[in-house]
From TrEMBL:
One Gene Ontology molecular-function label: aldehyde-lyase activity
Lineage: Bacteria, Bacillati, Bacillota, Bacilli, Bacillales
Binding site for dihydroxyacetone phosphate: G179, G209, G210, S211, N230, L231, S232, T233
Sorted UniProt keywords: Metal-binding, Zinc
Binding annotation for Zn(2+) 2: D102, E132
Full protein name: Ketose-bisphosphate aldolase
Gene3D superfamilies given in the database record: Aldolase class I (3.20.20.70)
Pfam families: F_bP_aldolase
CDD domains hit by this protein: TBP_aldolase_IIB
Biological process according to GO: carbohydrate metabolic process
Cross-referenced PANTHER family: D-TAGATOSE-1,6-BISPHOSPHATE ALDOLASE, D-TAGATOSE-1,6-BISPHOSPHATE ALDOLASE SUBUNIT GATY-RELATED
Binding residues for Zn(2+) 1: H81, H178, H208
Cofactor: Zn(2+)
């Protein structure tokens, strides 16, 4: 069942769970997410970064839309970190049901103006809008972007930003980074800042950089307004680590139906565990009552 983000996250926000939003880079990851979501009876979000759109081509979205439409659980197709109005318009034309405009590196005033323009365009065709305030960090190996230094979201600015833009969801910076933490300090979330933001903002919040964080911290976020948690690195690491293992042990294998299944299974196990952690497992029934 294909939905827009506003309708999907409104339910999660009210019922204290977060929906996982998973970056896809090929059809194998689409299958991983949908199968995991159906097995866990959980809503899920398939998100595609502009880098991944460039890799896959616009026609790939036709396949993703059909797969999501036929899924037995609620699904959203989301543009991750659209860097321009052009990125957003391309996504809307291709059938995304939600878009992110990331003007977080611009001035506060410009971020408001750009995000407000995207809201006007997207809402006219029933597409949801996520924007970002503050900057998410970026670790080595990530193609999703981010800043060298995290600029934490200010709660008062968040209130003003939401009121002036009319966005549906707000990505906040409370200590996470994109990519792997292997060669960087481990993340530590500012849960007190999250609580302050949640008290002043009345829309669902988004946590980027959901991989490699402490489970006990993640499990607190959806109690304080976070309704969407982005995940990429943990899932992709599991997939490609298993694929490398398989190819080393089976160095003459060349058929995809021989090589892919174990990698897909490894990634799916990670996604299912994350759905448990985000408290989205067995929450799909809320959307059918």
């Amino acid at each position: 069942m294909l939905m827009n983000m506003k309708d999907l996250l409104e339910v999660a926000y009210k019922n204290n769970f977060a929906v996982g939003s998973y970056n896809v880079a090929n059809s194998e990851f689409v299958r991983v997410i949908i199968e995991a979501a159906e097995e866990q009876n959980a809503p899920a979000i398939i998100q595609i970064h502009p880098n991944e759109v460039a890799l896959l081509g616009n026609d790939f979205i036709t396949y993703v839309r059909e797969a999501c439409r036929n899924a037995k659980v609620p699904m959203v197709i989301h543009l991750d970190h659209g860097g321009s109005i052009e990125d957003v318009m391309t996504a809307i034309r291709n059938g995304f049901t939600s878009v992110m405009i990331d003007a977080s590196h611009a001035s506060f005033e410009d971020n408001i103006a750009i995000s407000k323009e995207v809201v006007k365009l997207a809402h006219s065709v029933n597409v949801s809008v996520e924007a970002e305030l503050g900057t998410i960090g970026s670790n080595e190996g990530s193609s999703e972007g981010g800043a060298d230094e995290i600029l934490f979201t200010d709660a008062d600015d968040a209130k003003t930003f939401v009121e002036q833009t009319g966005i549906d969801t707000l990505a906040i910076a409370i200590g996470t980074s994109h990519g792997q933490y292997k060669h960087a300090r481990q993340p530590e979330l500012k849960l007190d800042l999250l609580e302050e933001i949640n008290q002043k903002v009345d829309i669902p919040l988004v946590l980027h950089g959901g991989s490699d964080n402490k489970d006990e911290e993640i499990s607190q976020t959806y109690l304080h307004g976070v309704a969407k948690i982005n995940l990429s690195t943990d899932m992709k690491n599991a997939f490609f680590k298993e694929m490398r293992r398989f190819l080393i042990e089976n160095d003459t294998a060349y058929e995809p139906d021989v090589i892919m299944p174990s990698a897909r299974k490894a990634a799916k196990e990670v996604v299912k565990k994350k759905m448990d952690l985000f408290n989205s497992t067995n929450q799909a029934h809320h959307y059918f009552s």
